[in-house]
Each structure stands twice: as structure tokens, then as C-alpha cells.
Amino acid sequence: MSENSTATTSRGVPVEDPTPFGWLTTTDHKRIGRLFIVSSMLFLVVGIFLDLLVRLDLTSATDFVSLGRDGFAQGFTFSREALTLLFLIPAFLGVAIYMVPLQIGAPNLAFPRAATASFWAWKVSAVVLIGAYIGNGGPYGGWANGVDLHLLALSGLVISLLLGSIAVATTVMTMRSPGLYLDTTPPFAWSALVSASMLVVSLPVLLGQIGILYIDHRYGRVFLAGNYGIWERIDWIHRTPQLFIYVVPILGVTAEIVLATAKRRVFEPLAMYFTLGLVGLFGFGAWANFSVTGEGADIIDGLEGVVLVGLYGGALLGTAGLLGLLGLALIQNRKMPKVSTSLLAALGAGTLILFGALYGLIGAATDWLEIAGRGNDGNPQLRMTTWVTGQQSVLIYGAGLLGLLAAIHWWAPKIWGRQLNDLLGILNFVVIGVGALLAFLGPALSGLFTEQPDFVYGDPNATAIYASWVDDTGAETFSAIGVAGVVILLGGVGLLLLNLLISVGMKKGIEADEDPWAAQSPEWMLPSPPPIGEPDQLPTLVSGTPLLDAAEAEEAAV
To answer: Which residues are CB-contacts of 553 (< 8 A; sequence separation ≥ 6)?
Structure first.
């Protein structure tokens, strides 16, 4: 270890080790953020590939195509865990860890060592999770110790993400520049606070359930009768309304890019903060789990059905209100904004979140009405089909990938000091958009017109072998549409990684100055990228739009 790695400043802050070893011991939020972003993108490839194998099995209602009878259920559960716990949450947590201190004038995160521990514990837990599945563990696995190992790894992932969320939320709450109030912070910093706060109150519910599941499976197997009861008690973390918590930072990215492009403030700032908070508040899905609703027969029945419909309605209202405010800012600009990858992807991601909320509201309302006796007597059509998979595709593949594309293209100059290729980025936007559309369309059409089951907890293989007990007319064709979409999405992720490799890794991208986009939030007052370690001087902020304030003051003086 070099001397720099153990030296400290006069304030007791460790000096960053500039050598490669410094990445292991870093307490710099910028390095930690990069580690989260890049690692989550690599895990995304694993998740999409597994989802592809699962969907291939659904293209036949009489036989397995790819994973086989012994691996289908584990492939299904692992793909969901990879897409949420290994990609969606950590990717935007990484963006928040990097950008939030820069946006609020803080020297670092509130708990920098906890953030470092968050990343490495998350990374180790992810590797252990993969190992558990490879060893025939996980839900529906045949190796009992592997099932326990999966639960321990899942606990590690949850604790790690909790640590990172606490660091981000505490930073926004306590380390803002003097004069910068919460209702004047940049929209992404506020969205990061909303998402992190909701993770802090919902992930412990999952952690408690995992503890119960581990004790029961390890020492008794009385409550679960083996490992077949595990997935039905934890899969709420991968479904809506919980998914809305994960996509709140995407709405913050959308607001940042649209307002900077329009060169305007939002018409009513408090309304913007309120709508972002609404989406996070109505994304609290921790109540919708089977420890509360019995064995999962009809989880949206009676009062619970009203609550679920209300949650979707609230998320829809919040998203619509925010997009309306941003659209008004663009209209007030009175000229066409410059078309860029970041703007297209940001608008696309915001629109898909709105659509995902509407789509979920329709499904929940239909199920509730049918269970209430206006349909098919407790066997709701949409609940028994792949309708929920379509919504996951909209929010994870559509909004998640487009939101990440927008964030990386917008903040790449600040993160890596290079601009990404915009032509390749626009092509990337088209590819991801088409892939997400097809990945959604296949299961959504199956949910409307067939009785193809979503996931049968008691007999997972019946999810893929269902021709003998439901009307599967057309289901195989619709599943093939979803397969085509996932294949295209793999190409979209490959394009993004290629763009990063060429523009950043090979240094072919345009070298960025402090503010290449003529933006307005505080991070664009700093060098691109900021040097590692804590800065000697910090800007004094009284607004989340200091560059716009300066431009307006200069214009008024002239």
C-alpha cells in the first residue's frame, strides 16, 4: 500500500490512493459511483440472457426449449433478481452516489466508508448468489445448502443496498451547501432522496422475511414444507408497485435533462418535488406480500384491491403531473430543442413510466372487479397470465434502460471527461426502444388474449407446460415476439457498452469542458471530471440552478 493510501488531510479525511489498489480502499464517492454503474451494466447482460432463456421455454406449451425441467424455475427467479437487485437499483444508486454530492455542494458522501462497504458487499453477495444458483440452489433448487446460501446472499444484497441508500439520503438531508434548501435542490438530487428513503423503509421488510425463510428452511421446514414457498414470499420486491420506487431517479434524470435543454426553470418547483415524491410514496409495495395475504390465492381482493388500485392511480397521477410540468417548460421555450440522445432517452423513459403506471392500473382494476363477482368468479383473467411480465418489461427494460442511456450520455463528461458518440447513441435509443416494445408486447398480448400462466408457485414447470390445463391458443406466437424483443435488447446493451469502450476506454470521444451542454445545475460548475478526493474549495449554493441564475443576471445587466 502506498503512503498516500494511509495519509489524511488536516480534517482527518483519508487521501485517495491514485494507484489501481486505491479502487479497493477508496472513500471517494466518484470512484464508488463508477464501480456501481459499470458493474451493474455487466450484471444486466446476465439478467437479460437468463430472461431470454426463460422466454424461449415459453415459446412451447408442451416441452422445454432451453433451460429444461430442472432449471426453468431457477432461471426465472434468478433473472428477476438480476434485473432488479443487480441492475436497476444499483445502477441508479451508483449515479446518485456520484452526482448527488456534486449537485448539492458537498465534499463527499455522509458515510463514505459505508458507501465503499456497500459496493464491495454488494459485489461479493452477487457473486455468491450466482454461485448458489450454479450449485443448484436458490428457490426451487435441489441442494438444501444452496438454498440457504441463496438466502444469505440475498440478505447481503439487501443490506448493501440499504447502506448505500442511507448514505445518499443522509447526504441530501444534512450536507447541502449553506443556503441550499430541500425545495431548491436539483431534481435528480431530490429524486435520489425520495428513492433512497423509500428503499430504507421497504427493504427491511424483505430482510425480515428472508430471516424467517432462512430459519424455517434451515432448521424446521414446517411453515414452507421445503423451498417451494420461498419465491412467493419475496417476489413482491420485483413487481409493481415496488418497482415505482426504483424508477423515481429516472424521473429525476428526465427533469434534469428537459429543464436544461429548455433553458428554463419549472413553472412551479414545489409541484415538481411533490409529484416526484408521490411516485415514490405510491410505490410502497412492501405490504403486498404473501405473509400478509395468506397463500397468495387472490391478493387483490376487497380492501386490499382498493389499496392496490389506489397505489397505481397515485403513481400515475404523480408521473403525469411531472411530465406535464416538463412539457410546459419545453413549450415556454418557444423553439425546438436540440435533438440529442440524452433528451430522446429521457423523454422516452418518462413516457414509459407513465404508460407502466396506466398499464398496471388497468390490470389491477380488472382483476379487482373480476374477483368482486363481475367476471369469472375468483379466477381473474389478467392475474392468471403474463400481464405482470409485460409491466416489468416496460419499467425495467424500457424506462430502466432508456433512463440509464440518458443519464450516461448526459453525465459521461462529468463522470469520465469524455462525450459519448451521439449518432451511435441515437441508434442505441432506437434499438432499446424497439426491443423494449417487443419484450412488452409479447406477454401483454398473451395476457389479453390467452390463458398462458405467469408463474405457478406450487408447480413452476406448469408455467412452461400448460397446454393441457388452459386455453393456450396464440400464446406460443406471442412468447416468440417477446423473445425477439429480448434479443434486440441484448444488442442495445452491447451498443451502449461499445460506445463507452470507444469514447471513454479508447479516448475517442470529445474531451469535455466544465459545461458542454450549457446546463444549469451545480455539477457543471466543476471540472470534467472532478479530481479524485475531496475538493479544496466548494461552491456556495443558494439555488439548484446557479448557472441559469448567472446567465439571467448577466442578461438583466446588459
So the answer is: none
